[in-house]
Amino acid sequence: MANITFASVNVGDAMPTFTSDPVTRTHMVRYAGASGDFNPLHHDETFVKMFGMPRVISHGMLIMGITGRAITEWIEDKSLRKFSVRFAGMTEPVDLHDFENTKQRATITVTGKVVEKFEEAGEKRIRCEIQAADGLGAVKINGSFVAALP
Amino acid sequence: MADKTKLGMEFPPYTFEVEKGKIAEFAMAISQKESKDQVKAIYWDSAAAKAAGYGDIVPSPTFQTCFALWGGGGGLMPILQTLNINLGRLLHGEEEYEYLAPIHPGDVMTGKSKIVSMYDKEKKDKPGKFMEFTVLETEIRNQRGELVIRSRSTLVER
Questions:
Q1: pTM to 2 decimal places
Q2: What is the ipTM of this complex?
Q3: Which of A49, A130, B4, B43 gets the highest tally of CB atoms within 10 A of its CB?
């Protein structure tokens, strides 16, 4: 991890772009177990059909988790002061029997940029806007985070 | 349909003991990895975390979502039942965290949630039909009573 300092960061700077693996149903089941979110919407295809949906959808919080990972690949975990997201779209997993045609909808790319540098609570802080979108350009998350930098 | 008379309601506190294995499991899940040595060592190796300037192992940024969901029969599910929210129509609208103090293995977290806002928004594509929004604010304290995380979750019924 690069050693990011307040002085080295400027408003307008981009955060390094992060790209996830295509989200599989197995990733979603692993996330269900880890988080305790067993809403059948995320693993049971017979349940989602009752609501007219063609297939299960990812937990929004898995996509927020992937976005958080993108942030903490750039800044240290202990620097994070605030992290907020608005969920803008659902994410469907890749279909393994049709991988090439469905991988883009399940691949999450996280981008971000520094929008503000300020002092608060005796710390030097930055605010960044972030976005998570799939490989087809559909936005999943719009959000922001605040980090305190040395 | 969310019960609007529940605005301002405070829910009974739930507790969650932070375990080292759960922190590693969660980090693996959000990192799409199958073993802990594929994720950052601060999520599973105490010595590595201390060498990196942390008090001990720390969880990844959205770990606190477990507190409500695994909070021993407490947490989110009883809240959804009390509100009479239909799980099949439930969407997650927004999520916000303020990080106020570190979390380490062995900490016992207590979360207290209350409903701070409930409102409707007309669907853009279906005039006369409404999406219902419920905003839940949660304060999470550790065993020393320190406020560790303040969170706001917006739940949407489509």
A1: 0.94
A2: 0.96
A3: B43
